[in-house]
Input
Amino acid sequence: MEDLTTRYNYDEFTPEKVFHWLSFAESPALGEPAPDFPLWHLDGTETNLSQIWKAHTYTIVEFGSFT
Amino acid sequence: MNALAEQFADQNVGSIFLYTHEAHPGEIYPHLTSMTQKLNHAQALRDILNVTRPILVDSLDGACHRAYGTMPNMTWIFNRAGMPIYKSNWTGTKSVENAIQYFLDVSVRRKNQERLAPFQVERLDYRTQDADAFEAGLARNGPKAVREYATAFED
Output
């Protein structure tokens, strides 16, 4: 059994390796405190999501990659 | 989304792009195995896709991405108190623009001392489908990405 990091960073796009990750229906609720996580700037310095959302009245976060 | 960020920047609306993992790993941009590689991919994405918003990178195991639903291109809006007030399982620029305009109006209504109570709404929004851009993205990642996408959805 591969570890979590390896499974999350799957090496090929197949329904078996990809689709079980898609869990938007179980994602955090609107209007409730959101979970916080460490994140990194491109220069490798660490921040976290809460620092980002505290910086503005509203903050738009788009998740994505090359595709 | 870059233009949208610029449009609302002077109204105290922040906007970031959060790099997650390669949804369609290929020979050129393969699956991630280290944080250094992940930072390099994110820098390349910024330069190639001309992302003008600040880019942040999730942990290698995708802790943030997984907690928020692991969709390839979702958008969330947070208020300053750390509550999500909008979430969409795909990114549609017009949907996000519509939501931000609504929330900015909520701020005005609050300033005018209107008594407000939150409620939840579900709505089916529509995003532009750009098949050419998507296919170009697969090709950018490498022939393997193109091949695997075709195989995954063939009958």
Notes: The two ends of chain A are 27 Å apart (CA to CA). The helical segments of chain A are 4-8, 15-18, 49-53. Chain A has a mean pLDDT of 96.
